[in-house]
Amino acid sequence: ASVLGIKDSTAARVAQEKFVHIAAWINSIEPPKYPGKIDLKLAEQGKQIFQKKCQGCHGTYGERESYPNKVISLEKIGTDPLYASYASDSKIVGWYNQSWFAQSEPRSWFEPEHGYIAPPLDGIWATAPYLHNGSIPTLEDLLNSSQRPEKWKRSFGTSASEYDNEKVGWKYTLETISGSSLIYDTTLPGYGNQGHTFADSLSENYRWALVEYLKTL
């Protein structure tokens, strides 16, 4: 907001002094706990898998949390490139780097990287659908790319019955046609569900263990 609404560094300093209180409140928020049952033995197995396969990008959780704030290149992540391309090619980069933000001390400027930041996973059970563009309805589908639905729809109801406690995410129906705003069509530009296939090499049992651990975050 400060990029568009603050005229100079003096006004930005006033906004920053107020924002520290907002940031402190944000940092005090805890993610909602998973409301269903968790197989703790299976989750412990999934934790070990997470530590080997996932924490390098997504961080660690528990008593000593860490978050690497890492940009993963498109070559590595392989997800739909449209948003990353927009960020790199957008005219806002040049505009920002000509603004007082970049031209006055302390300088702040854009150096866009062609990729996506690996997000923190606190409360991930409650953040479906998945990937940066919301193209995958459940965690189980995310971790097994071969079964990701090409076209799918959920009812947009708010009751607990709409939630898939087993696959962790939204219950959905497979669709064969597109054209409705209620149908997620992954064949459209920017809506692709490809990439992030790091769990495809896991056995089915290990994938389910990983899903169980992710419920605990």
Blueprint of the fold:
Elements: H1 2-5, H2 9-28, H3 40-53, H4 55-58, E1 71-73, H5 74-77, H6 82-89, H7 91-97, H8 100-103, E2 115-117, H9 139-142, E3 151-153, E4 163-164, E5 169-170, E6 173-174, E7 184-185, H10 204-214
Helix pairs in contact: 3-10
Account of the 3D structure:
The structure is a single chain. The protein is mostly helical. Helices cover 37% and strands 8% of the residues. The chain has helices spanning 2-5, 9-28, 40-53, 55-58, 74-77, 82-89, 91-97, 100-103, 139-142, 204-214, and strands at residues 71-73, 115-117, 151-153, 163-164, 169-170, 173-174, 184-185. Helix 3 crosses helix 10. The longest helix is centred in the first third of the chain and has 20 residues, at 9-28. The mean pLDDT is 91.
